[in-house]
Structure formats: C-alpha cells, structure tokens
Amino acid sequence: MKSDKNKIAIVTGGGSGIGLAIAEKFVQNKITVIIIGRDQVKLETAKNKLGELCIPVAFDLDNLSSVPELINDLIKKHKKIDILVNNAGINLKKEFTEVTDEEFQRIMHTNVTAMFALSREVVKCMIKNGSGSIINISSMASQYGIPKVIAYSASKAAIEGMTRAMAVELSPKGIRVNCIAPGFIATEMSAKALNNDKERKDKVMSRTPMGALGMPADIGDAAVFLASAASAYITGVVLPVDGGNSVGF
C-alpha cells in the first residue's frame, strides 16, 4: 500500500472499539488519521497508542450546524481528505413498545442524519480532487430481525440504502462508496450484550460457521482494503465481515 502514503483519512468514533481498530490499521499503512469523537480522554488515549499519524479531534457530530466549519477547518490544515469512515453510532436495547419518539429520533439523528451531514461536506472536497473513498459501517441488524433494537436496525438499514445511492451518484466523480457490515465482533459493546445472556451467545456461536467472534482488527483490514487501490473497481457494495454468520444455519 505504498500508494496510500500521505493520504488523509477521517474516522468517526475513532477513539475506541471498531473505529480505533480501523484507525490503527490505517496508521500501520502510513495513512494520517483524523479521529473524531466526543470523549476527549478516549481520543488522547488513542493518540498515545497510535502516534504522530493520529490526530484527535473532539467534536459532537450531533451538532449539525457546526459540521461545515469542522470540515473546512480540517481541509485548511490538511489540504485534502482522501478517505472517510463513517463509524460513529449509538444503540438502544429496549422493548419495541417502550421506545419513545425522542429515543427513536435520537438514534436516527446520530447514526443517519449526522453521517449524511458529514459525508456531504467531505464529498464537496473530494469532488474538487476528483477522487475519494467513503466507507460506511453498517451492521447485521440491517438485514436480520433482531429484537429490541428497532431504532438501531432502522438506522443501519438507512445507511446501507444511502451507500448504494451515494455510490451511483458519486462514483462517476471518482468517489467510491462502500459499506462494511460487521458480524459479532469482540468489543466492549458486544460483551455487554452477550456475556450476561448465555442463550443469546450460544445462538450467535451456533450459527457462525467460523465458530468464533470476530476481532476489531478484522474490520480494520476490510476498511484498509476498501480504502486502497486494491479495491479500485469496487463501489456500492455491502461487505459482511462476520465469520459466515449471515449465511449460517
């Protein structure tokens, strides 16, 4: 990936979990990574781990009116943005009938509307440069019927639809848009969902042909591939990285 040297990437939610793993893989491939998140402590910890190619930016993406200014400032400092990974997202596990309108809108606002606003501003820069790679992070929740995550499922289904629409509109302008749909990955979030629910964990493992949870680095490797010239003729795809879970029986 020598051709990726001097590239500039943005990874939202890059301070922990899958976002941090993606940022780490980018840094290993000599890509400068701007990690955006709300938790300053997590961002600084990530910076200490990843080194000089990691640039932490504390910002709340829910603050839509400030997104254009954020991107303009980043472009002034770094001249360009080659890669955008829309990873930031929140979840809510709750009975369908107990989810309030406000809770549903909060999930959609963070996971979909903020992603749209950030992508729109980054794309303006990419169009001027005639190139770019956008990677959206979806979830198996967009394709499965998983109980108690109605808002999260709706948001991830929207992301996959947006990926295809963006790819068709932007690929002629030199901007590829793809999506990664992680399976059950060993993160703090999945641990909370599985470790105290043996029945759910047994079900996950029984239908995962590879017989193990994925690691955050597996998503990082997929992101590196989709961001690089190795995937130059790939756009508009939703790539499951799930150990075969989506085809398991």
From TrEMBL:
GO terms for molecular function: oxidoreductase activity, acting on the CH-OH group of donors, NAD or NADP as acceptor. InterPro entries: NAD(P)-bd_dom_sf, Sc_DH/Rdtase_CS, SDR_fam. Pfam families: adh_short_C2. Belongs to the short-chain dehydrogenases/reductases (SDR) family. NCBIfam families: PRK07231.1 (NF005559), PRK12826.1-2 (NF009466). This is SDR family oxidoreductase. It comes from Ginsengibacter hankyongi.
